[in-house]
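Hmm, what's this shape?
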Amino acid sequence: MFDYKNNIDVLLDVSALAGLSISVIILVQGAANMLLMTSLWILYHSISSVGQRWYSFGWESQLLESGFLAIFLCPLLSMKKFPESCSQVVIWAYRWLIFRIMIGAGLIKLRGDSCWRDLTCMNYHYQTQPVPNPASLYLHQTPELWHKMETAGNHFVELIAPLMLIIPLRKVQIVGGSIQILFQVILICSGNLSFLNWLTILPCIACFDDKSLSWLFTSDTLQKLSPKSTDNSKGSFINSRRCIDVLLTLLIGYLSIPVVKNLLSSGQAMNTSFDPLKIVNTYGAFGSITRERTEVIVQGTYTNPDDPSARWYEYEFKCKPGNVTKRPCLISPYHYRLDWLMWFAAFQNYQHNPWLIHFVAKLLANDQLAVELIDVNPFAGKSPPKYIRLEHYRYEYSTFNSKEYGKTWWTRRKMGSYMPPVSLHSLQPYLQQMGWSS
């Protein structure tokens, strides 16, 4: 029997490389078919299913749902750049997807944090969002009236404008799709929300017809896209496509029942799947907003941790705030998963995040795979630290009228200890209990 447990890294690498290779073929060819798109969907589904906490983000399900629908936009085997037909069922399924994404996000806000109802959430969002970008500093310090207008505008985009996406009137849908795309572009410019906003733009394209997008193409391309006379010999193909459309409609309709019930429920859950294949899901974002930004700072030392004169060296992450002089990064649509998990961990404690203890153990061993996930390892090229501790800090932007502005991006104040100093030796019993190697 194949030893999956001891070869999981190899399997994940092979899956990722296979997915990358197929994606390159599609990109170079400028076309895809059902076979290739199904392969991509299966590969990513496999990775996200075993990814546990690393793949626990809501946009994993959104990518899987978007990818599943894309399968049925393509011919079965042909790699034609201009297919002769396009499933209207899939087009409407994408409209249904973007409707659920936005209405779910809007409802979870109204039912969640009170700051969404009193229009004060944007007073905090830019400073406390998971991974700010350079513009976030300036957006955070705009007048409070502007923040209230932002919050009210958010409610309009997420609660009212989505209705335009499912009204079967061409111009209404075009306006609705344009509003959603503009909203996602604003979010891209104001923070690093991974590939979420880029992915959300995708179903918005289904709100536009060929005529409204014709300005994007050359006259030669438009000529190739012009309707052709129907070939009677292709009747069997048309009938097969209709059968697939009927089955797809029934499947999406059936799987949408618990999703709609969830949207109507006062106990609405966000970013949840009700079927194991994650074909139709429920979405939502920022149902609650933190008022203060706290960060977990990782520090290591060679000396006795109980000695007040011990010198501690800080690890720096690729994007997460740490060094107050470091400019916030600009990496969307790339996703630094560890930085996001550290943001969540700062709300809780290390006992609720066993993965963090394992990560500390890896740093205590200067594990190469672990240190590649961070930006600065103060013990690179040296012996690993004897002890590591986690400290809890409160972070705030340097305000325009402060003496720190222009010198630092952040100011910080220590709140206390997040995790006491530990050594690799002291962690061994816990690592063995969890079945982890150091």
